[in-house]
């Protein structure tokens, strides 16, 4: 992966958790593998803006559902039940789902997620 692809991969779920709009802007910047200094500055500004936001329930849920996609076909029935229960009770002030997904990333050794800012900051 190139440096900008790595930067995008590390930050995309974190950005998604904070703002769908900012995530979409970041995704548009990363589109077509054409990165340049102007796009880097714009992406850095997106990250700075996102850093000031508290993830609302809707975007946090969306990001966690994307992360869950890495486990849904190989998890145990108990893990699936725990995921569904924690998803149902998720609020930004009561986030037990994020740490559970982080635990699953370690359990299943999903390097892409382990390197993700969203998982690292939980």
Would you kindly provide a brief summary of this structure?
This protein is mainly alpha-helical and 122 residues long. The protein is 70% helix and 0% strand. Helix 1 (3-18) runs parallel beside helix 3 (37-51), helix 1 (3-18) crosses helix 4 (57-68) and helix 2 runs antiparallel to helix 3.
Task: Explain what you see.
With 122 residues, the chain is mainly alpha-helical. It is 70% helix and 0% strand. The protein is built from eight helices and no strands. It has helices spanning 3-18, 20-30, 37-51, 57-68, 77-88, 97-107, 111-114, 117-120. Helix 1 (3-18) runs antiparallel to helix 2 and helix 2 packs antiparallel against helix 3. It is globular and about 45 Å long. The chain starts with a helix and ends with a helix. The mean pLDDT is 95.
Helical content (DSSP H or I, runs of 4+)? 55-70%
- Sheet of most strands: none
What's the helix count? 8
Task: State the low-pLDDT regions, or none.
Answer: none
Please tally the β strands and state the result: 0
Structural class: mainly alpha
Mean pLDDT comes to 95
Element-by-element helix/strand order: HHHHHHHH
Note the beta-strand portion: under 5%
N-to-C terminal Cα separation, in Å?
A: 25 Å
The Rg value, from CA coordinates, equals 15 Å
Anisotropy-based shape: globular
